[in-house]
Amino acid sequence: MTLNEALVKYCLRLGDSSLILAQRMAEWCSNGPILEEDIAMSNISLDLFGQARTMLTYAGEIENKGRTEK
After folding, report:
1. Is residue 69 included in any domain, yes or no?
2. Does 45 have pLDDT greater than 90?
3. Which of 10, 28, 30, 59 has fewest C-beta within 10 Å?
4. d(CA 67, CA 57)
């Protein structure tokens, strides 16, 4: 495995982990006992979605096969 392949694999793992965590956290939306906690959890979830998109886009650029995060 080359260094480039290892970097792509690492970025994909980070992106997938962030995506799954964001989805799980979004499930808790509107279930928080206090409004401020609910809003905070939603914001953390959105941040994780952004991290996932960034890592998956970067992996696609490194791989150089025309793939994107979509």
Report:
1. no
2. yes
3. 30
4. 8
